[in-house]
Write a structure and sequence with these properties.
This protein is mainly β. Helix content is 5%, strand content 60%. It has a 14-stranded antiparallel barrel. A hairpin with a 3-residue loop joins strand 15 and strand 16. The chain starts with a helix and ends with a strand.
């Protein structure tokens, strides 16, 4: 049990830029900052500015096929005339160690070329039976800019307010991550995504991937990411009516496969 808890606390430092409570995405290569086809919870809030229908989605991520490392996410969104509003909740871990993140997102699209989004988040972590939960507020802000009809650039900042949790036993600093990325539509059926993340105390992380949509109802994804190691990703998505279903997998040569599934619906 103690080994598992130590491993949980170490995942961020070893394999990720953001806290473990932030789920991965179904986007090719996890290069999601410039992704415009859907709003992903706790990724770039600017993408919410592009939604046109009320909707919700459920996401389940199983890191390295270990149930104690599962991430369960639900979020919903509501577009209005002046601003789009979203709410998200994520739970990671199990009874002896878990993290939760709740967020409220506001975003708007200005004309055809600019989206801006801000998000207020409340993060809690279960430290021990004696200390129980500790929580802290943080924030996220992002933008997506269409340079041409086929090329866009995006930026995002997670925890720019330098939030951290302190207790008598431990101090947990939430990562401060700055992200920049691009989306290039090579053809009407192929998108190329590129992303770079920089956490203030970690190496630069890169990510890239291609999404191929041979028909409107199907998309095939292939990508990779890494900074200490090379992680390939592959996945697919289908849609029918208002339903959306996506699945994605990545492979770490030491720890094995991680799987993510998403079910969404727009009214």
């Amino acid at each position: 049990m103690f080994i598992l808890i130590f491993f949980l606390c170490s995942l961020q430092a070893i394999f990720g830029q953001k806290t473990t409570i932030i789920p991965s995405s179904f986007v090719a290569g996890n290069a999601s900052v410039a992704y415009r086809e859907a709003w992903l919870p706790f990724h770039n809030p600017a993408a919410l500015g592009g939604v046109e229908k009320i909707g919700f989605q459920l996401i389940y991520e199983n890191k390295y096929i270990t149930k104690e490392l599962a991430n369960k996410v639900i979020n919903a969104w509501f577009p209005t005339k002046y601003i789009n509003i979203g709410a998200s909740f994520s739970h990671f871990g199990y009874s002896e160690y878990n993290e939760m993140l709740a967020g409220i997102t506001f975003a708007r699209q200005f004309g055809k070329h600019f989206r801006l989004g801000v998000e207020a988040d409340y993060y809690t972590v279960f430290l021990s039976q004696s200390a129980r939960y500790k929580g802290i507020f943080t924030a996220q802000v992002g933008a997506q800019i269409s340079i041409t009809d086929n090329f866009s650039i995006a930026i995002n900042a997670f925890n720019p307010v330098f939030s951290k949790i302190k207790s008598d036993l431990v101090e947990k600093r939430l990562p401060i991550v700055f992200t920049i990325g691009t989306l290039y539509r090579i053809k009407n059926t192929v998108d190329w995504l590129v992303q770079f993340d920089k956490e203030v105390s970690s190496p630069l992380r890169w990510a890239t991937g291609f999404e191929y949509a041979p028909v409107n109802e199907l998309v095939i994804r292939l990508g990779c990411y890494g900074y200490n190691s090379f992680i390939p990703t592959f996945g697919a998505g289908v849609k029918f009516g208002g339903f959306r279903f996506d699945v994605n997998a990545d492979y770490n040569s030491v720890l094995g496969f991680s799987l993510l599934g998403r079910l969404g619906y727009e009214f």
